[in-house]
């Protein structure tokens, strides 16, 4: 199955970001991708953290989700909406969920995952704390899709900082292993430079599955610089495709059942787990 990850440099304008996403998703679909994944915060990189609250939508309401559904339906693809801010279901809110929504080729919502691990970083000069505006999710999420050839694939969802917590991915390998793990991200430049590829390849190797990681990559209007380097890795940890520079673009490749079975058959590490 052909898949693709979108790299963006999102801005404080939701309308602008949606239009860029439309263009890039169309490009990926034209290249034959059946699953396309957008990066974390594809719809908004605000000037302040609390800008998320103003752009937040209720589940299955609002222009961001309507656009994702229409793009999936228009191109007949599985579309992973990076993340967008979702309002909690009950009562007034001071924080939102950072949610990854998956829409099927029919435009219907197929899966939802709320980011569980919230990033906090301080290097003595720069500081960032997601918990100020976000509340964490409470459960892992995976879904199954059937591609155009009739093959069924199990896909695990995660977001950015989740990448540092291998126990989440172990949980996603139950009740049966995922074939593909998705990691839409907005890694900071210093943490990405140090750990991005290392962690993605480790998750691929230890779970013996493909990993697709769409990313924010470049200098944003709010002053942030994100690492980018959107990539696709195979179950042996080999990088099949990667964007080497900053700026928006499409990174695509194929996932193959035979490759999964070969890696798991030659070194059946998943079957050797004790804990």
From TrEMBL:
PROSITE patterns: CN_HYDROLASE
Organism superkingdom: Bacteria
Pfam families: CN_hydrolase
Keyword Nucleotide-binding belongs to the record: no
Domain CN hydrolase: 1-257
GO molecular function terms listed in the Swiss-Prot or TrEMBL record: hydrolase activity, acting on carbon-nitrogen (but not peptide) bonds, in linear amides
Record keywords, A-Z: Hydrolase
InterPro entries: C-N_Hydrolase, C-N_Hydrolase_sf, Nit1/2_C-N_Hydrolase
Protein name: Nitrilase
Taxonomic placement: Bacteria, Pseudomonadati, Pseudomonadota, Betaproteobacteria, Burkholderiales
